[in-house]
Amino acid sequence: MKKYLIAFSLFTILCSCSTEEQPEPPVEEPKVFETSLGLAGEITSVIETPLTRASSANLYAIQIYSSPNTEGSGNYTCYAYGLFDDISLIKVKLLSGYKYKFTATMIVDGRSKVQHNDSTFYIPMTNLNFGITQPYSIPLNNIFNPTTKEELHIKSGWTSLAVDNQSYFRPNTDRYYGELSDFVPSENGTATIPMKRVSFGLKLIAHQFTEGTIKIALENAPDLQIVYPATEISDIFTFNSCQGAYAAPDTYSENLPVSLRWIKSDGAIIPLSTQNIAFKRNKLTTITVEIKDSSFNNGIGINIETDSMAIGDSINIETGTTTDTPVTPGI
């Protein structure tokens, strides 16, 4: 009997041990990698000019998304955003176990072009909240800020301009856009975002223009005007969809209505022409207007030429000539 009691006791002890909760293994904390962000592609000739100062007149806006780095996972959520004018400070801390997606834009001379209040900037450097009455702005502080929502409106060309505090879907800004997906951070890693110019150029030459003002209206864009004795004008505009222009082949274009009006010295307004013109990405389209009769019955001849815009260059036109002088944007 004693043997049976000892065996039973051992059995009870073993059972109780097997039913005790085993301690869970400690959760391994994810590693943190400080990652530099680089911009490549067509933007290179703009940003690789040696800097004499840390900051520049250009604005860089970047939105970052994250997703667990597991097979079949592709649902990205917002992780961080930042607004910069110093490219040496574009660094972010990323966690191991995740993959990341980046969307980025750069506006040449954005600090003066985009509507701002001191060092806070409006559209596209913010995602407008239609439920508020006051414009929502984001500070230029050269750091990434954590977020769970889409803070930037950079996939569209929509921009509020400083010159008139008005917003346009095709602003007269020179702009670049890029995306990078499925980036996995590593020690001393760099995420290089390929960028493309998402702008087009328009140049208008008026022949036999003898008085007054010619106004040029481009759909959803600021008006241009030539005031006599000037006979030419040119500018660079951003496409309505930056993401669309980036994702499409290099032959991307938008077919837009262009209207010309002549306001004579006596105040008379004479419609000159309205027609659709195809504006191609990274191309300067030259429109030559022949004003055949400077009195009342005006005949207008339009000749359209398309030339390449030098990557990273803006266009400066000397009045009265037909020579384009490339000017490197301020860095």
Short description:
This protein is mainly β. The protein has helices at residues 2-19, 44-47, 110-113, 242-247, and strands spanning 32-41, 59-68, 77-84, 91-95, 98-107, 116-117, 120-121, 138-139, 144-146, 159-160, 167-168, 175-183, 190-197, 199-207, 213-218, 224-227, 232-238, 253-263, 269-280, 283-291, 300-308, 314-317, 324-327. The protein has two domains: 32-197; 199-327, Immunoglobulin-like (Sandwich).
Helix and strand topology:
Layout: H1 2-19, E1 32-41, H2 44-47, E2 59-68, E3 77-84, E4 91-95, E5 98-107, H3 110-113, E6 116-117, E7 120-121, E8 138-139, E9 144-146, E10 159-160, E11 167-168, E12 175-183, E13 190-197, E14 199-207, E15 213-218, E16 224-227, E17 232-238, H4 242-247, E18 253-263, E19 269-280, E20 283-291, E21 300-308, E22 314-317, E23 324-327
